[in-house]
Each structure stands twice: as structure tokens, then as C-alpha cells.
Specification:
heterodimer, A: alpha/beta, eight-stranded parallel barrel, 11 strands, about 40% helix, B: 9 helices, 8 strands
Chain lengths: ~400, ~260
């Protein structure tokens, strides 16, 4: 098992009556709620937390892209990854990722990922999300019905740019470029490993498997809810005769570790409540623009993660219910170890993404949560699959890497 | 007959469903983003005076919307292709909402073929100081509230009603979603694909027919169309009282009378 430490970077000061006063945390939340001085400290604390996770021995640290969103303060994941590339030396930089259709032209993604890969010495995981409907359709104005087509075309352009060592012309529907010519090229050859995060669109599975990319199911509703989706994915793997290697699948789980089960509730309860009831408070009209999900996915009955249907999963739930339903795996190290092992084996995932800064959780709690997890839980979790399967989806850094600051050190 | 008929275009790339009923001058009705699930009472009235043809746009029961991408020129040419196939040379074009946008595009690209143009609560323009409502981001209840003059009317309630049977209800919702997805190709994120820069080409006498209480595309847009229709033989604005965006259904008698009188003049 590979353990990747995931950050959302939520704004921690949404008012207590946020749900009553505002219809959505995303898309049309007034930016008057944002305080830039707090933001200065927040970004630096959050980056510190990601760096701390590296020190604690996780395999990768993850950033991601959201727009007009108070629970995801990374409109540019590449800027965050660039900060981390120079301040870390070992962990994989998992950028999950750049929403390809939002970059004009998409060669920008090929260039910036190549820069990150070179700066970090080949530690980059290139995440290629389609992006949520809120981000892509509502906040960035992309036509829902053509978003996927634009995404696929952007992918083809990026791959060709990474693997063609000379200029070429690209005549796409969405990008037309006379000279595509990539300077710099990525360090990892032929290109960094590609992970595709998804919210459960079934055609994504075919596409991912045909290209031998890793698939990451990013859900906030835990392993029990994820079972249906991941079972569908593994069924597709079997259908296509692909290797049922757990490392080709990732999954995000909220985790909160404390000394005892009772102490975990004391430590984390209100922050988890903030996450589910303020951070995930999204106007149902924004959840799923018409045309964002394909007819096939709609017919498969896979639901959007926010909006009315998703609200039923969380409004008015108590700590005990969050725990019982598996939205969050929490408690003493022993409790977390057992439940997490059961979860990852049940889902058959090899790329675990852990969310340990949850909602309004302040830095000292994040560090405690992360350290307890890393020392008491992670060692046994990492052993899962390790002897049975090979991770073909991890970065391959060069052994001799530059040390930041060394050139001018006295 | 006023049931749905079918034709195919371009070697099966598009399957087009259409209603055709009545006799008289050729009148083509282009529906809005809500689709046209039936030959509605307003069309029944019109078909007593005109030969009414009402094609369903791709994605609304007709197929092939993926070949239109998000290109309004393709939709415009496609719809002319449909009329060519049906032998409709010089129609009166009546378009509601997104269909109004399409009718205006058709009249701009083939100005000599459109005998008269009727734009009913038409989309296609954008005014910064008077934005059209974002109906894509509305819940069904919010949409009915915005689309109808009287959201409590039986007509408005019928709009929200779903079949009792769960599978049938699901299917209705999926078809609605498909229609909105297709509409998004031309209306997302704003309903402005440059029509204002093409309206000067329209030659046909034009009627701008609006529900006085239109909350989706306010009456201000009727005036905006007037401002851009600089070459039309004549431009007339008519507001129908006690009607919103769904004016043709809400005030079928008054609205169709206005269309008939305009076409007779």
C-alpha cells in the first residue's frame, strides 16, 4: 500500500450560521467572506502540514484544483506543488491534478508538469481530472456537453507533446496550434505516471484502463459508500482482462486518530461537522450541470457527491453516524488500523489517499492526527499488497537529486 | 396528423422527429429548452390557420446532437437542412426561447427565405445590466417559479408532475436532462453566441412577442432585439398580459391571435 497525504485547504472561518445564510460553499459564495491576512497564515500552515506529512514518512503528498470554492483554496495546484517541490526532497508530488479542459492551450499542463518533474527530480504524479461540474461548468464556463470531448482532446495533445521530441502541428477542435514544441520535457520517461481522479463516471473506467493509467475515486463518504463504485471498477477491469493490480486504484478516506476512541470524538467531532455541514453545503442546482454526466452514467444511477441527493447522506448526522457509516475512520490507533485495513482490502485499492486536515481542524490537531497515524497505523497498512503486487504507477525519481539552496550555501 | 413523424439526414447522422399538422401558409415552430413533449394547445390553434411543422431539436427526441458540438452555426444549418428535406421553402418562423434564438440565426443566415419572423421570449442576447436567469442552476421548483406567470396554476403544476411509475418517472427526468444538456450546447454559460452581430442581416418583418411578466428573459430583451434588427422590413413588439416566459401555453388564445394578426398584416 502506498499512503498519500491529501490536502483540500478549506477556509476555516465560515460563520456558524453559514448554511442558513448562504446557499452554497461553491460557485456563488461571496468572496467578502475571505480574509486575506488569515489567508496568508492559512496557506503557510497548510503547506507546513504537507511538508510535515513528508517528514512522517508518507509516500506522497497531494494537492488538487478547485475554483470559487471555500473548502478548496487551490485554484492552481501547480503553484502549490512548486512550493512543495523545493521544500521537500523525498515524497512524491501527487498533483490530482490539473483539470485539462480548463487550460488554454492544454500545452500549459504539459509544460508546467514537465517543470515540476524536472525541479523535483522526477517525483511528480500527473493527475488528469475532468474537474467537477462546479469548477468546470459553473465557475469556468465550459459547456457541459462538450467538456469530456475537450478533456480527451487536451489529453491527446499533452501526451503527444510529452512524447514527441520535435515541433508538430496540432489541429484539434478545441486547440489549434501551428508549433507545439515542449521546452522543458519531463524528467520521467516517456512521461510521469498518470492518475485520473473520478467521481464515478463509468466511461472514465474504460478510458483509464485502455491507457493503463491509475484510477482514483475521490469521495468524501467513506469506504462503505465507495464499495458500489469500486466494485464496478474492478468488474470493468475483469471484463477488459486487465491485471487486477490494486495499485491501479486509489481512494480517499477521511481519517482522524487520537489516543482513544472517546478522545477522538472530543478532538475531532466539531471539525468533522464543519466539513460535512459547511464545507459540503452546495446548492443542488450547481451539483451536476445538465450534460456534465453522460447519459450512461446517469442511467447507471451513480449520484453526484453534492446537492440534494448527497445532502440526504449527511444533514443532521451525529458523530456516531459519521463513524458507523464509515464516512470517517477514527478512534484509537488500534481501531483505525483495523477498520482501515478492512476498508482498503475490501475496495482493493493500492493508492490510499488520507484526508487528515478535516474542515476547521487547526494545525496542532492536524499534526497530532498525522503523527499518530504515521507512527501507529501506517506501518501495518503499508504492508498490505506489498509482497503480492508491484506498483507500476509510482514516480521514478533519479537517485542523485539536487539539494535546494546548496549552490549558494557557504 | 399531429403525431410524431421521423426523417433522417446525412446518412443517418441525424434522426429528426417532427410534428406536422394543419393547412395554409407554411409555419415552422421551433421549441425552447424545455422541448416539445406534445403537439400543445397553442400549436393546435395555429394549425387551424397554418400548415404547422414543429421539428424536435437534436437531443430533444431527435438525435445527433453530438455532431453539433457547441456550434450554433451547425444547429442553424441543420435546421435549414430539415426544412429543405420537408420542402419548406419560405416559412414563417416562430421560435420560443432557445428556439427564438435559432429562428433569428436562421433568418440572419438565409434572410431571403424567411417570410415572417416571430420571436417569443427569445434567447440569444445578453445585457449586463439585465441578465437572463440562470435556469441551468435552478431546482425544478425554482424553474417553475421563474418560467410561469402563476406558479400555482394547474399548468405550472403539471410541468412538475412525474409519472407514478418509478421507471417511467426516471425516464422523464433523463429525457429532460438530455434536453437541457443539448440546450447547454448553445446557451451555456451565457446565451450569447454573437447573434447581436448578425441580426442586421434579418430582412423579414419581425414580431417580438413577450409575456409581460417574463422572469427568465425579461421584456427588456424585446427592446434589445429591436435595436439590433436594423434591416427588418418592420419590427413590432407585443406584450401579452398575465403571462410569463411560457406565454404560448399560459395565454394560448391571446398569443396565437397576435401571431395570426401579425402574419395576416
Amino acid at each position: 500500500m502506498k499512503v498519500n497525504w491529501f490536502h483540500l485547504m478549506p477556509y476555516r472561518w465560515l460563520p456558524d450560521d453559514f448554511r442558513e445564510r448562504y446557499r452554497s460553499v461553491w460557485v456563488d459564495i461571496p468572496s467578502a467572506l475571505w480574509d486575506s491576512r488569515k489567508g496568508h497564515h492559512l496557506y503557510n500552515e497548510y503547506l507546513d502540514e504537507l511538508e510535515f506529512a513528508e517528514k512522517m514518512g508518507v509516500d506522497g503528498i497531494c494537492v488538487n484544483e478547485h475554483h470559487a470554492n471555500a473548502y478548496g483554496l487551490m485554484p492552481s495546484p501547480n503553484i502549490m506543488a512548486a512550493c512543495l517541490a523545493r521544500r521537500t526532497s523525498r515524497a512524491n508530488l501527487v498533483v490530482l491534478g490539473d483539470s485539462l479542459a480548463l487550460y488554454n492551450p492544454p500545452t500549459r499542463v504539459a509544460e508546467e508538469f514537465a517543470m515540476l518533474d524536472c525541479i523535483s527530480g522526477g517525483r511528480l504524479v500527473a493527475g488528469f481530472p475532468v474537474g467537477s461540474s462546479m469548477d468546470t461548468n459553473f465557475a469556468y464556463g465550459e459547456v457541459p456537453a462538450t467538456l469530456r470531448e475537450k478533456y480527451y482532446e487536451a489529453h491527446d495533445l499533452i501526451m503527444k507533446a510529452w512524447t514527441t521530441p520535435e515541433p508538430f502541428a496540432f489541429n484539434g477542435r478545441y486547440s489549434k496550434i501551428r508549433y507545439v514544441n515542449l521546452w522543458p520535457r519531463p524528467l520521467q520517461q516517456p512521461h510521469p505516471p498518470v492518475w485520473v481522479p473520478g467521481g464515478g463516471s463509468i466511461e472514465t473506467w474504460d478510458w483509464v484502463l485502455e491507457r493503463d493509467y491509475a484510477y482514483c475515486y475521490l469521495s468524501y463518504f467513506g469506504y462503505q459508500y465507495a464499495k458500489k463504485v469500486m466494485d464496478g471498477f474492478w468488474e470493468k477491469v475483469a471484463q477488459k482482462g486487465a491485471e487486477p493490480n490494486p495499485y491501479r486504484a486509489g481512494f480517499l478516506q477521511l481519517i482522524a486518530v487520537s489516543e482513544t476512541d472517546a478522545q477522538a470524538e472530543k478532538d475531532y467531532s466539531k471539525h468533522v461537522d464543519y466539513f460535512f455541514n459547511r464545507c459540503l453545503h452546495v446548492h443542488s442546482g450547481f451539483a451536476d450541470a445538465p450534460g456534465y454526466r453522460t447519459e450512461a452514467t446517469v442511467r447507471a444511477g451513480l449520484q453526484a457527491q453534492v446537492g440534494d441527493a448527497a445532502d440526504m447522506f449527511r444533514y443532521g448526522l451525529s458523530w456516531k453516524e459519521f463513524v458507523d457509516r464509515g464516512y470517517i475512520i477514527t478512534g484509537s490507533p488500534a481501531t483505525v488500523r483495523d477498520r482501515l485495513a478492512e476498508a482498503v482490502k475490501g475496495l482493493r485499492i493500492g493508492q490510499l489517499m488520507v484526508l487528515q486536515q478535516i474542515g476547521s481542524m487547526p494545525k496542532e490537531l492536524v499534526l497530532k492526527n498525522t503523527e499518530l497515524f504515521a507512527k501507529e497505523v501506517m506501518p501495518s497498512i503499508k504492508k498490505i499488497w506489498a509482497n503480492e503486487w508491484q506498483d507500476r504507477w509510482c514516480p521514478k525519481p533519479i537517485p542523485e537529486r539536487a539539494v535546494p539552496g546548496e549552490a549558494v550555501a557557504n | 396528423m399531429n403525431g410524431l413523424q421521423t426523417l433522417t439526414l446525412r446518412n443517418g447522422l441525424f434522426t429528426v422527429k417532427y410534428y406536422q399538422h394543419g393547412a395554409g401558409a407554411q409555419l415552422v415552430y421551433l421549441h425552447g429548452a424545455g422541448g416539445l413533449p406534445a403537439f400543445t394547445p397553442d400549436l393546435e390553434i395555429l394549425s387551424q390557420h397554418f400548415a404547422v411543422t414543429a421539428p424536435l431539436h437534436p437531443g430533444f427526441g431527435s438525435t445527433g446532437e453530438e455532431h453539433l458540438h457547441a456550434d450554433v452555426l451547425k444547429l442553424t444549418l441543420h435546421t435549414w437542412d430539415v426544412l429543405d428535406r420537408l420542402g419548406i421553402a419560405e416559412p414563417i418562423l416562430v421560435g420560443h426561447s432557445m428556439g427564438g434564438m435559432l429562428a433569428a440565426e436562421m433568418a440572419a443566415i438565409e434572410p431571403r427565405r424567411v417570410k415572417k419572423l416571430v420571436l417569443v421570449g427569445a434567447a440569444g442576447l445578453w445585457l449586463d445590466d439585465c441578465p437572463t436567469a440562470d435556469f441551468f442552476a435552478m431546482t425544478p421548483e425554482e424553474l417553475v417559479e421563474a418560467a410561469f406567470y402563476d406558479p400555482q396554476s394547474d399548468l405550472a403544476k403539471a410541468f412538475l408532475a412525474l409519472p407514478q411509475d418509478k421507471d417511467a418517472a426516471n425516464e422523464v427526468m433523463i429525457q429532460r436532462l438530455k434536453g437541457f444538456a443539448a440546450a447547454g450546447r448553445f446557451l451555456w454559460p451565457l446565451p450569447d453566441r454573437g447573434l447581436s452581430e448578425r441580426l442586421y442581416r434579418v430582412k423579414a418583418p419581425t414580431l417580438l412577442l413577450w409575456g409581460e411578466g417574463d422572469k427568465l428573459i425579461p421584456v427588456r430583451y424585446a427592446q434589445a432585439f429591436c435595436d439590433f434588427l436594423t434591416s427588418s422590413a418592420s419590427v413590432k413588439v407585443e406584450l401579452i398580459p398575465r403571462a410569463g416566459h411560457m406565454v404560448l401555453l399560459e395565454q394560448a388564445q391571446a398569443a396565437t391571435r397576435a401571431i395570426r394578426e401579425f402574419c395576416r398584416a
